[in-house]
Amino acid sequence: MRTAYSVETVRAAERELMARLPEGALMQRAAAGLAAACADLIGRVYGSRVVLLVGSGDNGGDALYAGARLARRGAAVAAVLLAPERVHPGGLAALLRAGGRIAGSGTGAGAAASAGVGAVEEAILRADLVVDGIVGIGGTGGLRPDAARLAACVGESGAAVVAVDLPSGVDADTGEVRGAAVRADLTVTFGTHKPGLLIDPAREYAGSVRLVDIGLGDVLPAEAELEALQHVDVARLLPVPGAESDKYRRGVVGIAAGSARYPGAAVLAVSGALRGGAGAVRYVGPAGDAVVSRFPETLVSDQGPAKAGRVQAWVVGPGAGDDASTVAEVLEADVPVLVDADGLRLADRDAVRARTAPTLMTPHAGEAAALLGVAREEVEGARLASARELASRYGATVLLKGSTTLVADAAGGVVRVNATGTPWLATAGSGDVLSGLAGSLLASGLSALDAGSAAAYLHGLAGRFAADGAPAGAHDVAEAIPGAWRDVRD
Ligand SMILES: NC(=O)C1=CN([C@@H]2O[C@H](COP(=O)(O)OP(=O)(O)OC[C@H]3O[C@@H](n4cnc5c(N)ncnc54)[C@H](O)[C@@H]3O)[C@@H](O)[C@H]2O)[C@@H](O)CC1
Ligand SMILES: [K+]
């Protein structure tokens, strides 16, 4: 499991750890890890041109101490000081002792806003490596104008860019990026991941992320704010039939989907459900013929959901058109229900809130925006807050689809993030496959949080296998699910 902790939690843990250690020990651990990561990235340290962007806090201190280490190994290191009067004194002294210098001025008053700005920009443009120590977990609001100018200049440089702890300008707790931010090739983060490093849009700014152990693990609380499942975690969740299993014990998933206009949505939801571990898939709706001709193992009922027979979890909504009564009927069932696509629009909020069995809603950003009454960009820019808000409004678990899919429970607690997805998954019908797959996992007894996050994981992996660098259709993704399942369990 990859976990991420909020700034507040990190601060508390750091205080506890610092009280037990000699002064400055944590920063030295951070700087050593940072310098090593920089060296790995650029390959040859000796003779390389390194520019440090140094803010007024400890993030700048980390950059300065790491810069000193690189200078001792023969790099030409220049520090751009955003606030020379408040720079980390020990870090700056260490850099100067190691032969580093202050960029833009020979006097030490070389802030980017000063007359030395041309020289600063030139240094950044000519650098082999830029180390972004403008601001870390102490950042508030968007980058200030001086810092924003530096971030823009870094964007024009061909240098490798390493962000210290976080790319400056991104929100550590939410992954939001309001205004300018540094785009890094690599982010070297300390002690633990921060939620923003795992959630878009900030995740994209971070590049690849390397975690440096500074001993924080022992003092962090057991429950994180955000977690990302890995193969072994998903393998533990996936249902495996035992010797005594029959189709009912393995779970029957009901699919109430499709319409005369969109029969394909029903077929695709069933295709996902058949690969999700349930013992049987029951279909109700107007696309029964299309479903059976493609998947003869489906139990098709021409009755409504309430009379369809035994079902341990329902999926309702893909391709449902305007069939609000089926959605309402499914929401009355006393078993877990997954609501997707048209079903999200048709589901009555009070009916969802009144349910006692789990409800899993699976909107993409556009659908979530419509339910929240905001613009799509607002959801895309604030994915964590949007998922949490929707979960709390509906009293449901919400799986917000996207490049980094989030799954949030209504009661709060840990949020799951999934990063196995690929842009190739942005293809018609791929969401229908996911809803069937997640519904199948619900029917086999997983909680809404586990079913949603395990399904997102498998679906993302299947998308990668199906696409493999070329376009793939949603049915290809469904067919790749068994391979993803095997990959996870190996
Ligand atoms: N506390 C610890 O134990 C450790 C902290 N470390 C480093 O310390 C960092 C946190 O240090 P600080 O608490 O000093 O905070 P930061 O260095 O992250 O930022 C605070 C400084 O940035 C300025 N600032 C805030 N928002 C800004 C904005 N939007 N634009 C421009 N400047 C802005 C503030 O004026 C303040 O001086 C971590 O991210 C990490 O890099 C590491 O050395 C590891 C150990
Ligand atoms: K930074």
TrEMBL record:
<feature type="binding site">
    <location>
        <position position="319"/>
    </location>
    <ligand>
        <name>(6S)-NADPHX</name>
    </ligand>
</feature>
<dbReference type="GO" id="GO:0005524">
    <property type="term" value="F:ATP binding"/>
</dbReference>
<feature type="binding site">
    <location>
        <position position="59"/>
    </location>
    <ligand>
        <name>K(+)</name>
    </ligand>
</feature>
<feature type="binding site">
    <location>
        <position position="132"/>
    </location>
    <ligand>
        <name>K(+)</name>
    </ligand>
</feature>
<dbReference type="InterPro" id="IPR004443">
    <property type="entry name" value="YjeF_N_dom"/>
</dbReference>
<comment type="subunit">
    <text>Homotetramer.</text>
</comment>
<feature type="binding site">
    <location>
        <position position="432"/>
    </location>
    <ligand>
        <name>(6S)-NADPHX</name>
    </ligand>
</feature>
<keyword id="KW-0520">NAD</keyword>
<keyword id="KW-0067">ATP-binding</keyword>
<feature type="binding site">
    <location>
        <begin position="136"/>
        <end position="142"/>
    </location>
    <ligand>
        <name>(6S)-NADPHX</name>
    </ligand>
</feature>
<feature type="domain" description="YjeF N-terminal">
    <location>
        <begin position="10"/>
        <end position="222"/>
    </location>
</feature>
<comment type="function">
    <text>Bifunctional enzyme that catalyzes the epimerization of the S- and R-forms of NAD(P)HX and the dehydration of the S-form of NAD(P)HX at the expense of ADP, which is converted to AMP. This allows the repair of both epimers of NAD(P)HX, a damaged form of NAD(P)H that is a result of enzymatic or heat-dependent hydration.</text>
</comment>
<feature type="binding site">
    <location>
        <position position="431"/>
    </location>
    <ligand>
        <name>AMP</name>
    </ligand>
</feature>
<dbReference type="Pfam" id="PF01256">
    <property type="entry name" value="Carb_kinase"/>
</dbReference>
<dbReference type="GO" id="GO:0046872">
    <property type="term" value="F:metal ion binding"/>
</dbReference>
<feature type="binding site">
    <location>
        <position position="364"/>
    </location>
    <ligand>
        <name>(6S)-NADPHX</name>
    </ligand>
</feature>
<feature type="binding site">
    <location>
        <position position="168"/>
    </location>
    <ligand>
        <name>K(+)</name>
    </ligand>
</feature>
<comment type="function">
    <text>Catalyzes the dehydration of the S-form of NAD(P)HX at the expense of ADP, which is converted to AMP. Together with NAD(P)HX epimerase, which catalyzes the epimerization of the S- and R-forms, the enzyme allows the repair of both epimers of NAD(P)HX, a damaged form of NAD(P)H that is a result of enzymatic or heat-dependent hydration.</text>
</comment>
<dbReference type="InterPro" id="IPR036652">
    <property type="entry name" value="YjeF_N_dom_sf"/>
</dbReference>
<keyword id="KW-0511">Multifunctional enzyme</keyword>
<keyword id="KW-0456">Lyase</keyword>
<feature type="binding site">
    <location>
        <begin position="401"/>
        <end position="405"/>
    </location>
    <ligand>
        <name>AMP</name>
    </ligand>
</feature>
<feature type="binding site">
    <location>
        <position position="265"/>
    </location>
    <ligand>
        <name>(6S)-NADPHX</name>
    </ligand>
</feature>
<keyword id="KW-0479">Metal-binding</keyword>
<protein>
    <recommendedName>
        <fullName>Bifunctional NAD(P)H-hydrate repair enzyme</fullName>
        <ecNumber>4.2.1.136</ecNumber>
        <ecNumber>5.1.99.6</ecNumber>
    </recommendedName>
</protein>
<feature type="domain" description="YjeF C-terminal">
    <location>
        <begin position="230"/>
        <end position="488"/>
    </location>
</feature>
<dbReference type="InterPro" id="IPR000631">
    <property type="entry name" value="CARKD"/>
</dbReference>
<comment type="similarity">
    <text>In the N-terminal section; belongs to the NnrE/AIBP family.</text>
</comment>
<dbReference type="InterPro" id="IPR030677">
    <property type="entry name" value="Nnr"/>
</dbReference>
<keyword id="KW-0547">Nucleotide-binding</keyword>
<dbReference type="Pfam" id="PF03853">
    <property type="entry name" value="YjeF_N"/>
</dbReference>
<keyword id="KW-0630">Potassium</keyword>
<feature type="binding site">
    <location>
        <position position="165"/>
    </location>
    <ligand>
        <name>(6S)-NADPHX</name>
    </ligand>
</feature>
<dbReference type="GO" id="GO:0052855">
    <property type="term" value="F:ADP-dependent NAD(P)H-hydrate dehydratase activity"/>
</dbReference>
<feature type="binding site">
    <location>
        <begin position="58"/>
        <end position="62"/>
    </location>
    <ligand>
        <name>(6S)-NADPHX</name>
    </ligand>
</feature>
<dbReference type="GO" id="GO:0110051">
    <property type="term" value="P:metabolite repair"/>
</dbReference>
<keyword id="KW-0521">NADP</keyword>
<comment type="similarity">
    <text>Belongs to the NnrD/CARKD family.</text>
</comment>
<dbReference type="GO" id="GO:0046496">
    <property type="term" value="P:nicotinamide nucleotide metabolic process"/>
</dbReference>
<dbReference type="InterPro" id="IPR029056">
    <property type="entry name" value="Ribokinase-like"/>
</dbReference>
<keyword id="KW-0413">Isomerase</keyword>
<dbReference type="GO" id="GO:0052856">
    <property type="term" value="F:NAD(P)HX epimerase activity"/>
</dbReference>
